[in-house]
């Protein structure tokens, strides 16, 4: 019986020695989803979102994309005269309206015909802004008199 245990022990030891013949320098591959790749992906996503937001802001800020004039109402010009007040020139058909726009209300300041609309084929002698300025001054003098 002792020989049986000896044989078993001898065979068991020899199998464990044979089992250790694998590659000793084997290194398992790094996982596909790691902390570094996740941080890199999130950083790239944030960069793309920042470019989109920045481009949109620039287009809006510098009015690089003109607003589509739909219908008969067109905004010709606008100027800020206070933190929340604006003077806006609006074209409706062949008439320009000068509107004072404030939060919660809109007041009509002046009405005039569209400059250069008298003769469709001719070019006006004066710049429309100069014509508007003179007409506005004349209208204000009439109201004050």
Automatic annotation (TrEMBL):
Biological process, per Gene Ontology: bacterial-type flagellum organization
Keywords in alphabetical order: Bacterial flagellum, Cell membrane, Cell projection, Cilium, Flagellum, Membrane, Signal, Transmembrane, Transmembrane helix
Main location: membrane
Segments traversing the membrane: 38-59
CC terms in the record's Gene Ontology section: bacterial-type flagellum basal body; plasma membrane
InterPro entries: Flagellar_biosynth_FliO, FliO/MopB
N-terminal signal peptide: 1-19
Keyword Membrane in record: yes
Compartments it resides in: Cell membrane; Bacterial flagellum basal body
Family under the similarity heading: Belongs to the FliO/MopB family.
Protein name, per record: Flagellar protein
Organism: Nitrosomonas oligotropha
